[in-house]
Structure formats: C-alpha cells, structure tokens
Amino acid sequence: MKVTDHIKNAKGDTLFSFEIVPPVKGKNIQELYDNIDPLMEFKPPFIDVTTSREEYVYIEKDGLFDRRITRMRPGTVGICAAIKHKFNVDTIPHVLCGGFTKEETEYLLVDCHYLGIDNLMALRGDPMKGEKYFKATKGGNNYAFDLVKQIAAMNEGHFLHEDVEMKNRPDFCIGVAGYPEKHIEAPSMEADLKRLKEKVDAGADYVVTQMFFDNQRYFKFVEAAREVGITVPIIPGIKPVAVKRHLQMLPQVFWLDMPQHLISAIEKAKDNKEVRQIGVEFAVQQSKELLDYGVPVLHYYSMGKSDNIKAIASELF
Ligand code: FAD
Questions:
Q1: What is the pLDDT of residues 103-128, one digit of tens each?
Q2: Mutate to test the pocket of ligand 1, among 50, 51, 95, 123 (most ligand atoms within 8 A of CB)
Q3: 179 Cα nearest atom in ligand 1
Q4: In 161-271, which ranges are continuous DSSP H helix?
Q5: How far is the CA of 185 from the centre of ligand 1 (A)?
C-alpha cells in the first residue's frame, strides 16, 4: 500500500516507521531480521531500506595498491523483497541518482514493480567517499527532481525508450528528502524550498526530513513549505544519539545543530551506555512534542541496532 494511503487510513493517528541499512557485503541477513523483529509489535506500516553508493577500495598486490570500485552494502531491492515477504510489511527502497545510469534505474524500477513494491524514496545521493562534490553518473540523473520525473513518467506508462509499450503500468508513490536545517549545498533555505517544491510538482507524494534535534526547526520548515504551496505530508526523521562520537559526526555529516542541554548531558556521560540512554530520553521528549503537533508519522533512523528505537517506541505507541 502507498505511504499516503497508510496515512489516510490512520485518520489522524501518528504512525511509527523506521529506516534500516543493508548489511555489509558478506554478512548474514539474519542480524537485520533480529533487529527488525522487536520493532514489529509497534506495527510499522512501512520500513525504509537505504542504498549506499559505490566506493573505492584499495587492494594490496605485491606491495602496490590497486584501486577498485565496489558497493559495500548492495542488495537494497532484494532486502526490501525479503523483509516484505518475511514480515508482511511494505518496504521502501531508496533509489539514488549517483552511481546509476537512467537505464539501470529503469531496470530497478521494473524489478520493484514485479516485486509489488508500491513506494520509492527518490534521492540524489551524496558525493562519493573522498570526493567533495557530487558528480552525476554519465547517463544518470543529475538531481532527485530528474529521478522523480523518471519514476513519474513510468507511472504514466513511459519507458525511457518509447518503442516499448507498457501494458502494465506501475503506480509508485514517491517520497523525497527535505531539510529543516537546509541542504548543505543550497545557497539559502528559500532556494532549497524552491527545489523541494519542484520535486513535489514533478510527482513526489510525500517528504521525509533529514534528522533534526530542535523541533522548532521542523515546525518552521513545515510552515515555510506550506507557504510555498507544498501540501504533501512532511514526515519528521528522528535519530536517537547513541555514541559520544555523534556529537561531532552528526553535525559534520548532516549539517545540523544540537541543543546545548543535549550536548552537555552527552559530554558528562561516563560511557556510551549512558549516552545511549540519554539519546533515548531525548528522542522520547522530542517525539512527544511532535505527536502533540500532529505529525503523520514518526520515522526513526536505526543505523544498525534497534534496542534504542524499541525503548522509544515502547513509551509512545
Ligand atoms: P536533491 O533534491 O537533488 O538536492 C540536492 C541539492 O541540489 C540541494 O542543495 C538542492 O537545493 C539542489 N538542487 C536541486 N535541484 C537543483 C537544480 N535544478 N539546480 C541547482 N541546484 C539544485 N543518501 C544515500 O546515499 N542513500 C540513502 O539511502 C539516503 N537516504 C536518505 C533519506 C532521507 C530521508 C534523507 C533526508 C536523505 C537521505 N540520503 C541518502 C542523503 C541524500 O542523498 C543527500 O542529502 C544528498 O546530498 C541530497 O539528496 P536529495 O535527494 O535531497 O537531492
């Protein structure tokens, strides 16, 4: 079922959902199942599965390093199919511009349609590891906007090459990313919102936000989005802090601010076990305020272990 239909069917109740990361190549999928299993009691209507870009690896041979390109966490669509089948839940693959030609994206969309996947999260992707700026793949989509257009065209019955007739069209529900604290590359919030509006006008059905720790940023973002005519659901993304290192890493990677009282509590924590507990308590309070605001879904970023997401969900759902 489409995310937008899940939201409609909830009739104003807030839903619980989460995002998972595929296992590193060579690892067992059981670990992933073991992390999803405890969260199923909170009845997530959908689970997102991220996609990782290709990256360079250096292989030593006779004292020399040979640079190769590989994907360390492949299999997003396969994992979506496996989870959908095992847990009887909708799964949402993240589809990237970076690293894929439009042809490869088309094959992926065809696979998703065959597998009964109804929702896709359309994203540009970040620059490759070690590169400062995003470079579009030759023959690939430049921006998420172009990817949304490609998916919307398929929904309308058009493949990239018009000579193939589409007798059985998909009807994908399309999610896109939004940034309550502005995307790092956008010259202003206003410019970023204009780009978000373009994605929605091209066919995006809902927005999921980047993580944030200050709800006021989200409230202002929703208000500003409504002012520029974005009417689709805007789902807040929440990340419980789990380790001390997140104090430096999250602002650096995701370009966000953290409240001083959270920073001070984490700095004072004696170990990461305590940090994890602080992260849970903060996320519970943050989520309660978002629930009062009437958000359609509370969407959690679970990078790996899900015990903290379970602790949060137990307080709220
Ligand atoms: P876009 O919407 O294309 O925007 C990128 C930048 O370009 C923005 O600054 C925008 O303002 C600007 N822009 C847009 N259109 C134009 C234009 N026509 N001309 C000039 N500038 C323009 N990354 C992954 O690699 N894998 C994932 O699974 C993944 N999941 C994510 C899930 C969520 C909910 C979010 C919020 C992010 C996720 N990301 C993921 C990160 C995302 O790929 C990066 O933030 C990326 O840098 C931007 O992606 P986007 O889809 O927002 O890009």
A1: 999 999 999 999 999 999 999 999 98
A2: 123
A3: 36
A4: 189-202, 215-227, 246-254, 260-268
A5: 9
